Amino acid sequence: MRSRYVVGVTALGGAAAAYILLARPRHLRWGATGQESGEPLPGDDLIADPDLTATRAITVRAPAGRVWPWIVQLGQGRGGFYSYDFLENLAGCDIHSADRIVPEWQDVGVGDEVRLAPQVGLTVASVERGRSLVLRGGVPMGRSAPPYDFTWAFVLKGEPDGSTRLLVRERYAYTRRWARLLVEPAAAVSFVMSQRMLRGIRDRAEATRRPPMESRGQGHGQGH
What we know:
The chain has helices at 2-28, 34-38, 64-72, 85-90, 179-207, 212-223, and strands at 52-60, 113-117, 120-128, 132-137, 148-158, 164-174. The protein is α+β, with helices and mostly antiparallel strands. A 6-stranded antiparallel sheet has the order 1-6-5-4-3-2, with helices on one face. Strand 5 and strand 6 (164-174) form a beta hairpin. Helix 3 packs across helix 5. The chain is globular and about 50 Å long. The protein starts with a helix and ends with a helix. The relative contact order is 0.19.
């Protein structure tokens, strides 16, 4: 019996070590180039010395103007997070990801709340319309404050071919020693949900019809 326990613990430890050494670094920078992972982004100044950073990215075959509306309406009770709704709802988040742009959800400002769940929200720390949205906060532990500071940045960068790079950066600063035990395992879950969210935003933006002015502008240019 003891030998089985030792074998089990050893196997679990080996799996954890393999994840940390092999899979975790890729998960923390999924889709992002080395330059994108290392360059400063809006919101970085809010947490100067993070304990954990993840930068993930995807190319969207659409201009930033067609990507931004999907980002600005993020949130529970709004556009959702374009990820695995059924998994989020198992935790009681009540998320319903939108498949259309809703005008009423297009305005957010510094100090506004973007909810992760009915009773849990992040605060808009900065917003540059059409370019970046930075959220800040954390998930409280019952009646206690979150044991970490957290920023979640969504950044759009136009490419020469008319496509857009969408970068999403998470930065954590632990305010309690044991916060690492909470945040580090959650990083694996965050990877699963984030890559699905990035694909969800990409697919929606690429399927969005061009605004009339955009279509006319392109047609006018082709006429010359």
